[in-house]
TrEMBL record:
PANTHER family: INOSINE TRIPHOSPHATE PYROPHOSPHATASE, INOSINE TRIPHOSPHATE PYROPHOSPHATASE/HAM1 PROTEIN. GO terms for cellular component: cytosol. It comes from Companilactobacillus halodurans. This is dITP/XTP pyrophosphatase. GO terms for biological process: nucleotide metabolic process; purine nucleoside triphosphate catabolic process. Mg(2+) binds at residue 70. Pyrophosphatase that catalyzes the hydrolysis of nucleoside triphosphates to their monophosphate derivatives, with a high preference for the non-canonical purine nucleotides XTP (xanthosine triphosphate), dITP (deoxyinosine triphosphate) and ITP. Seems to function as a house-cleaning enzyme that removes non-canonical purine nucleotides from the nucleotide pool, thus preventing their incorporation into DNA/RNA and avoiding chromosomal lesions. Substrate binds at residues 8-13, 71, 153-156, 176, 181-182. InterPro entries: dITP/XTP_pyrophosphatase, ITPase-like_fam, RdgB/HAM1. GO terms for molecular function: dITP diphosphatase activity; ITP diphosphatase activity; metal ion binding; nucleotide binding; ribonucleoside triphosphate phosphatase activity; XTP diphosphatase activity. Gene3D superfamilies: 3.90.950.10. Its cofactor is Mg(2+). It catalyses: ITP + H2O = IMP + diphosphate + H(+); XTP + H2O = XMP + diphosphate + H(+); dITP + H2O = dIMP + diphosphate + H(+). Binds 1 Mg(2+) ion per subunit.
Amino acid sequence: MKEIIIATKNPGKAREFKRVFNDQEFTLKTLLDFPDFPEIRETGTTFEENATIKAHAVMQRFNLPTIADDSGLEVDALYGRPGILSARYAGDHNDAANNAKLLSELGGVPMEKRTAQFVSTLVFANPNNEKDLVVRGEFKGLIGTLPQGDDGFGYDPLFYLPELKKTMAEISIDQKNQISHRGQAIKKLEQQWRDWINWY
Ligand SMILES: O=P(O)(O)OP(=O)(O)OP(=O)(O)OC[C@H]1O[C@@H](n2cnc3c(O)ncnc32)[C@H](O)[C@@H]1O
Ligand SMILES: [Mg+2]
């Protein structure tokens, strides 16, 4: 059976990938299946650079086709922050602390100015392909004033969808995948990767 690795240690991302990116043809693994895999330093200055670093580190280690996701939240009132630093915004990868910091930085900002977007860049690297496949998805919303909902991960409880009158943490994983930045990027990948990949 062919194998594809998703170069992530984030259980929320892993779940979203596994839900929509699967097939009879290959098995999907993530870094959660390899807990000893060392921390990859995300030293790039863009989502694409960081996703490329992650995809290549994992592809080289396993010699298998590998997809990495680098993603984050860009808040307009914060000039695009936390952006590529979204995971480490309040220190060390703590969702609750990140959300608290975001609320405090946006204190006093009125709802109409709390616009933001989620961005996901996926890089697919393969030992037999010279060039990576790169896709990007974006999704716009508002930053609420109170966390709401228990589903999703990261900033989802603060990411408000005005059309649905719900946060991203109050919709199902399938609904999220239908509309989200990552869901859109995965759709683009699905349209392209079979024509791109050289399995052997
Ligand atoms: O690098 P990997 O191992 O994939 O896991 P990570 O959590 O560190 O992932 P990133 O470096 O791409 O950082 C992305 C951060 O942006 C936030 N984020 C990304 N996608 C999100 C989503 O769909 N919902 C909520 N927050 C999201 C969340 O805080 C993530 O930790
Ligand atoms: Mg990371």
